[in-house]
Amino acid sequence: MRRRAFVVLAGVMLAGPPARAQQPRTLRRVGLLMGNWPDPASEKLVERLRAGMRARGWVEGKTFAFEILSAQGDSSRFPAMAAELVRREVDVIIAPLPDQALAAKNATASIPIVTVAVTDPIKLGLIESYARPGGNVTGGTTEAGSAIVVKYFELLREAIPGLARVAVLWDANQRSVAEYLKEAEGPVRALKLEILALPLRDAEEIGPAFARMQREPIGAVIMMAGPMFFAHRERIAELALKHRLPVMSSVVGLVEAGGLMRYIADYYDLWGRSARYVDAILRGAKPADLAVEQPTHFTLTLNLRTARALGLAIPQSILVRTDRVIE
Question: CB 132: neighbour CB atoms within 10 A?
Fold first, then answer.
């Protein structure tokens, strides 16, 4: 997989600028920094963006085109990918998550950048304020990082009687997660829960991490969002079931693959909303003047099939709050 990621990126870097001679001069180019592409779950998200563009009168291939680069699960490649989009002089860059947004911001101060689901954009230094971003970054956000971490612990504590210790998996390249966990320590202790932090440097460490959780032992797993975990979500779900560990995560597709619960801002809605920003920017608006939106809709997904396999009786208090049940 890592060799494939290198080949994909290297091919992009060596290809040179797109051949514009065969394209109309009016064709606007929208660069996408994707963690994994092509991927069925990613394609569903981008389709919401496409639908939003169509609704605003844009015709893909005639009035605009996507230029999609993929890290193939390796977030360390985002800076090089962002630099490549800047070299191509795209009209706008869509950087969905914090790692992509930071890479794009570091690569350019002039090309507009649209985020989709970035946590704490002010703390990350991406914007000055939600109402007046003030630079070349705008778009959508999700909930504050530490707040969502605490919410994960609360839901697991409610769903699993006697839960005492929870492992948290995250990509070691995502420095902000360590800060979120530190901020969450007090509220988590109040829930009478203990945290085992397991930052992973690459996908090869996933198996050993589950082996360690089996030895500790651990009662549940929280998996933070990130390209590496998204790319390996099916393997992670399989390992979790093998070790009889319920997994809570915001990773799209994880619950469908066999994880227990997902609590998340509605990503499909956020991707659809991002078309409004792209449309406005392509028509001349400045990112500095476009207010950053916070999510209004959160969803809880529960895999009852997994709960039964793990011998968990999910309480009614969670069932009544669940938006989607997989049986």
Answer: 14
pLDDT per residue as tens digits for the range 262-299: 988 888 889 999 999 999 999 999 999 999 988 777 88
CA distance 157 to 15: 51
Please, which residues bridge with residue 34 across strands?
A: 70
| Rounded Cα–Cα distance for residues 35 and 42 (Å) | 9
Strand, coil or helix: 181: helix
CA distances from 267 to 94, 161, 195, 209 (A): 14, 30, 27, 28
pTM: 0.73
Contacts of 34 (CB under 8 A, 6+ apart): 42, 46, 68, 69, 70, 71, 96
Report how far Cα 93 is from the mean position of its chain's Cα atoms. Answer: 16
DSSP letter (8 states) at residue 171: E
The distance from CA 253 to its chain's CA centroid, rounded to whole angstroms, is: 11
CA angle centred on 296, ends 295 and 298, rounded to 5°: 85
